Amino acid sequence: MGAVVGTLTMQTKQRRLSRDKADDDLEMTTVCHRPEGLDQLEAQTSFSKRELQVLYRGFKNECPSGIVNEDTFKQIYSKFFPHGDASAYAHYLFNAFDTGQTGSIMFEDFVNALSILLRGSVVEKLQWTFNLYDINRDGYISKEEMTDIVRAIYDMMGKYTYPVLKHDAPKQHVDAFFQKMDKNRDGVVTLDEFIFSCQEDENIMRSLQLFENVI
């Protein structure tokens, strides 16, 4: 999680937060895409107006047009994983942020997802994570989909992890997850099975929390 937030706010933190409202409103009209009003975003998310202004300035620093395409997202994300290949995981993460499947992420998409991941309830976070793993958005997680995501995470972590990861580590990880999650043994995991399994198993929650660090 810190990767996305950090890159989009690192320059923002160095700026003064004392600009008046007129300046803030003016900033939000000078990009190609104008985000929804602060009042509406404040109502939709768990962020205050001031927090939204800070996030927006960071977002605009990286994306002056107000819109992030997948290539730009991958470039930003890869900066935080120099020893691995983050392109595959960034692709899946981009699709999870792009809820409207428009091929781009706007500020509204960014802060709505961030609100869930940082300040949402456990169930809300699990629902978001389920959608990340449900690559084809059919309402189920298949073993192949989970393997693709987990392998992408391992690729992103690179060769310099400690302890050194075995080649078959992603498969072992997915097999263990499915053994616990696929309650009716039909070969797929539903949202209910996913949430129930995560909540009842501390090891799974701990694993997901570790993966949260790379979101």
From TrEMBL:
<dbReference type="Pfam" id="PF13833">
    <property type="entry name" value="EF-hand_8"/>
</dbReference>
<dbReference type="GO" id="GO:0005267">
    <property type="term" value="F:potassium channel activity"/>
</dbReference>
<keyword id="KW-0851">Voltage-gated channel</keyword>
<feature type="domain" description="EF-hand">
    <location>
        <begin position="85"/>
        <end position="120"/>
    </location>
</feature>
<keyword id="KW-0677">Repeat</keyword>
<dbReference type="InterPro" id="IPR018247">
    <property type="entry name" value="EF_Hand_1_Ca_BS"/>
</dbReference>
<keyword id="KW-1003">Cell membrane</keyword>
<keyword id="KW-0479">Metal-binding</keyword>
<dbReference type="InterPro" id="IPR011992">
    <property type="entry name" value="EF-hand-dom_pair"/>
</dbReference>
<dbReference type="GO" id="GO:0008076">
    <property type="term" value="C:voltage-gated potassium channel complex"/>
</dbReference>
<dbReference type="Pfam" id="PF13499">
    <property type="entry name" value="EF-hand_7"/>
</dbReference>
<comment type="similarity">
    <text>Belongs to the recoverin family.</text>
</comment>
<keyword id="KW-0630">Potassium</keyword>
<dbReference type="GO" id="GO:0015459">
    <property type="term" value="F:potassium channel regulator activity"/>
</dbReference>
<keyword id="KW-0407">Ion channel</keyword>
<keyword id="KW-0633">Potassium transport</keyword>
<keyword id="KW-0631">Potassium channel</keyword>
<dbReference type="GO" id="GO:0005509">
    <property type="term" value="F:calcium ion binding"/>
</dbReference>
<keyword id="KW-0472">Membrane</keyword>
<keyword id="KW-0406">Ion transport</keyword>
<dbReference type="InterPro" id="IPR028846">
    <property type="entry name" value="Recoverin"/>
</dbReference>
<feature type="domain" description="EF-hand">
    <location>
        <begin position="169"/>
        <end position="204"/>
    </location>
</feature>
<protein>
    <submittedName>
        <fullName>Kv channel-interacting protein 1</fullName>
    </submittedName>
</protein>
<dbReference type="GO" id="GO:1901379">
    <property type="term" value="P:regulation of potassium ion transmembrane transport"/>
</dbReference>
<keyword id="KW-0106">Calcium</keyword>
<keyword id="KW-0813">Transport</keyword>
<feature type="domain" description="EF-hand">
    <location>
        <begin position="121"/>
        <end position="156"/>
    </location>
</feature>
<dbReference type="InterPro" id="IPR002048">
    <property type="entry name" value="EF_hand_dom"/>
</dbReference>
<dbReference type="GO" id="GO:0044325">
    <property type="term" value="F:transmembrane transporter binding"/>
</dbReference>
